[in-house]
Structures are given as structure tokens and as C-alpha cells.
Amino acid sequence: MSTPTLTAINPNQGPTSGATSVTLTGTALTTATAVKFGTTNATSFTVLSDTTVVATAPAGSGAVQVTAVTPGGTSNGVTYTYRAVPTVSSVSPNQGTVTGGTSVTLTGAHFVSATAVKFGGVAATSFTVVSDTQITAVAPPGSAGPVTMTVTTVGGTSTDTVYFYYIAVPTVSGVAPIQGPAAGGTSVTVTGAHFVTATAVKFGTTAATSFTVVSDTQITAVAPAGSAGPVTVTVTTVGGISNSTAYTYLPTPTLTSLAPNHGPTSSGASVTLTGTGLTTTTAVNFGATAATAFTIISDTTVVAQAPSVSGSVQVTVATAGGTSNGQTYTAVSAPGI
Predict the structure, then answer these.
(1) Within-domain flag for 194
(2) If you average pLDDT over every residue of the chain, what do you get?
(3) Res 269: pLDDT
(4) Nearest one of 81, 89, 80 to 151, comparing CA atoms
(5) Which residue range(s) make up the domain with 116?
(6) Which residues contact 167 (CB under 8 A, 6 or more apart)?
(7) Is residue 337 part of a domain?
(8) Which residues of the chain have pLDDT under 70?
């Protein structure tokens, strides 16, 4: 009677808990009386033909030699590997945008035979087994909040509570104030949602001089220098880049003339100031004294009532864009009788 031989086993690996159905291929298998995984008998086996036996793997560990026993002897061995249930100890980074696409590294054990990586119940867009202790995966799209990371291998599915956090894309609803000098330095409050993981605030393409996340709905930022005109303010977080809202850089006001440029020392004289960038005028000063009143006529004209002053003083205009250059105004006392 011929000694049995084994030429292949399929599959050649399974979980340590056993119960995997494997097909053994070889010769002289008709009279098989036992199938062994190492020194342990198969849970059950069925002889299909002289060249094929189907067996159920018992519980075990590591790599073992599978053999068939017949009255003709014991066959050569073919390798079967028991795979332990994988474990996940960490994921880095542990947060990313709800739109997906974040590349993460999972650290753990028993990853070699990985067949799936899931974020919650959703399969990773792709994954690569780097080693038995490391996998890189690309996060699929998801809903804001935590999901459990799992790895599935021939050995089973991990059961560790390691979380990946989907972060919502930030939204900006407004900024205050909505304008400031082109020189920068204005403290701006940005309101909206999903700001906690903010990594940048930009005025146009320029990063804020500094910013502070006050809460998930508020950020205070210092406007950088910019060119006169409107720009868009955006917030960047782990969740992505927000929508934009407008902020306007105002030019520093200028004064080119006063008419008249002289008047009485008493208050009340009407003076027309001509210049540029006067629309947002907040104050007109004659030296250190504020005008009694003023009216903004246009971006180039303001009419002010001179306060009580004496001698020559510099008239300046303050706007949201800064303080203008000065123009000389001379207060002359009334002649004596």
C-alpha cells in the first residue's frame, strides 16, 4: 500500500479559534484514517477521492504541519498558519475631514493577512499593509463625530476601541468689524461653526498676524497688512477650508486743502476739508480739539465746524483706515476797537 503524499492545502491559513474548512490535495488518500494539524486531529474530515480530502481545522497557534494518515503510513507535511485576531492600539492622525481622503497610520499587531480596514462600518478607500504591526489607510467620507477603527484579517476582526474623529468643514457667518486700515493690526472677531481645530485664518491669501480660538463658534484674529479694497476671510481646520466672508481694507485718509484755512478763535466757523478716503470719518480734530460737528459729504469732502482754538493748528481726520496728514488752520483774534 502506497504512502500518502500531500502537495497543497487551501486555504493555508486561518484563525486560532479553528473551524476553517481546508482542502488537502495529494495522492493515496482514499484510506485516510486521520488528518493532523501539528499533533492535533482535525475537528472532522471527509475523503472526496484518492487525491482530495476536506478537513476542518482545530484550534491552534502559529505555523503547523498538516499531515494525512492512512494504513500506508503518514504523509509529508504541508504548512498551515494560524492567524491571531488583530489588535489596533492607535491611529494617527486620529481626526480628519468629513469629505474623506485623510491618510492615517494604524499601529497594532497581527496585521499581515489584513483583508479590510474600516472606519465605523465603512471600508477604507484604500489601505496598505506595511508590516505585521502597521497599516496605512485612506479615510472614506463620513459624518461628523467619532467612529471605531477596525482591522479584519484571516484571524478575525479587531475589537479595540480606537477612534477616528470626522471633523465637519468650518463655516463662517460673519466678521466684526468688517473693515480696517490697510496697515493691518485690527482685532477682528470671526463667528461661525466648527472652529475648534482651526489651523489658519486668512485675509485673502495672507495669514492673520495671530489668532485665538475662543470657542467652536468664535475666533479672534489680528488682520495682517493688506492693499486697499475687499478681501475674503476664511478659516482652515482639520475639517477643511470654510466659505468666505468679506473684509475691506481701507486706505489711510489724506487731506489736500481746507477752505477757508483760517477763521476766528471762537467756535462755529464752517470749514470744508478736501482729500481722499473720507467716507468712514469718525473724528475731525483741530490740533488736539475735536470739531464742534462735522458732516461727511462724500469720500473726498467733509464739512466741519471749527472749535474754539487759537493760533495755527493742524487739522486731521480719523477714519477706520487711520489718521490723515495735517493741514494748517489759523485762528485769528478779532481786531480790538
Answers:
(1) yes
(2) 96
(3) 95
(4) 89
(5) 87-167
(6) 95, 96, 97, 98, 144, 194, 197, 237, 238, 239
(7) no
(8) 336-337
**Tens of pLDDT along 91-150?**
999 999 999 999 999 999 999 999 999 999 999 999 999 999 999 999 999 999 999 999
* Exposed/middle/buried for residue 107 (C-beta within 10 Å: 0-12, 13-18, 19+): middle
Q: Do the domain assignments include residue 46? A: yes
Residue 203, exposed/middle/buried by CB under 10 A (0-12, 13-18, 19+)? buried
Q: Say how many domains are in the chain.
A: 4
Q: What is the pTM of this model?
A: 0.75
Grid coordinates given for 135: 497599516
List the CATH number of the domain containing 131: 2.60.40.10
Angle subtended at Cα 23 by Cα 20 and Cα 27, rounded to the nearest 5 degrees? 150
Residue where a domain terminates, one of 37, 52, 83: 83
Q: Which of 124, 143, 167 is the last residue of a domain?
A: 167
